[in-house]
Design goal:
Layout (H helix, E strand, L loop, with lengths): L14 E2 L2 E2 L19 E4 L2 E4 L5 H4 L16 H4 L4 H10 L2
Antiparallel strand pairs: 1-2, 3-4
The chain binds iron/sulfur cluster.
Length: about 90
């Protein structure tokens, strides 16, 4: 349903005919780490995330998975090889 409170005319799952059902009754503003992200939108002088109602929660466990302002620097660390395959590659000299 289209938002009628903070992010007017943006489709939102939290909006019902009774109003906004998100925790606190409205979206939360962005956090500092969101600056520069393409999902940031301005309404009534405040900045909000187009994708999430509570941007701070997206950064609690690390990088927001939809952030467009941060390069995926942790990709190499998370793409660890299976130790057995790594051992075979080393023995083959690759
Ligand atoms: S997508 Fe993530 S980084 Fe971008 S504004 Fe929303 S919460 Fe912030």
């Amino acid at each position: 349903m289209l938002c009628t409170t903070v992010k007017k005319d943006i489709d939102c799952n939290f909006m019902t005919s009774q109003g906004c059902t998100f925790n606190g009754g409205s979206c939360h503003t962005i956090v500092e780490k969101c600056n520069g992200c393409d999902h940031v939108v301005s309404f009534q002088g405040n900045q909000y995330c187009r994708a999430y109602a509570d941007p701070s929660s997206k950064w609690v466990l690390g990088r927001c998975n939809f952030a467009t302002n941060v390069i995926k620097d942790g990709l190499k660390e998370s793409k660890r090889l299976n130790p057995l395959k790594e051992s075979k590659r080393k023995s083959r000299g690759k």
